[in-house]
Amino acid sequence: MNRIPLANRAVALPLIGLLVAWLAFMGAALANLYVPQPIYNNVGVATFPEEIVQIAPYLFLLGIAAVSVASLIGKRWAQRSRVEQGEGHKLSRAALRFANLGVVLGLAAGAIFAIGNFLGAFNTYSGRAENPVLRLLSVYVPILLATGLVVYVLLAAFVFNHESEKNTDGTKVKMTDAQKALGLGYAIPILATAVAIIFGLAVYDVTRTNLQVWIWVIIIAIVATGVVFGTRFANRARAAKPAPAKPRTALTAGASNLNFVLSIIFGSAVTIMAFSFGTQAISKLQTWSNPPIDCVGVECNSIPSITAPSLQWLLEEMAPAKVLLLLAVVGIYVTITERNKETAPTKKAK
Hints:
mainly alpha
């Protein structure tokens, strides 16, 4: 592993996280097929089956965490490579941008996951007498884990940058007041939003009614308070004396940006296709029976059945998605490394 240059590893690691995310998302889609469905009688009254712990949210969160953490580590490797190879090392610079993109996408996915769980919790459990423990494990815990993931990755990637903050003797630099304020400026709005989400769900679970107007007012007030305090700490950090800017070469940076964008356009399109085709393939394992047209006095339910994966299904449905994902991963890696290959040795910046 150490024989591979650090910059190359920084490009490859987020792509490995993407592979893990695809596997986790496909597992979540498969787990959702086994969630018991409500049964309706001929007058439309629903009977809910026995509740189970929802595994899919944890698998989705595992995939998001794989991309986020892998990109975070890749970012640190890219920064270390820039220190070792010099500021002009093109592949290190491209690897840093690519890792930053992975971190941002992971943060966005984590936020969407938490908010989606919050909004979906109202309809999914409407009319049920839920087990409080199952409710906690299926809804509240994933939201809290997603919030913790977002806060950790955000602070580790953009506030407490250990790879670029070391003393000359190699020891870590202690946090300054500006860094503490900046960290609070990032974290407080996110934590306040999480508190508001948990508060809204708790009120809904206790009262068993839709959120009333005043409850929404309280939720918004909590979020607004977090934004206000976050802005205050951010301004305090901005008022601190900024570090001297490092010189940059605009022309070479522009060429590197162009190459980076071209590789991402290809990779993003093929990656979306891989996730979409994989999800569609798994959904085809579930089939629904057709109830009779005149179902008075007989069973009127359309009951789903799950077919075991077959060799034909693997080759015709799932294999194309896997190949597309491999094409995306290999294509992104080769494009970034080839377009940023050094034509001459780069001297370390003084």
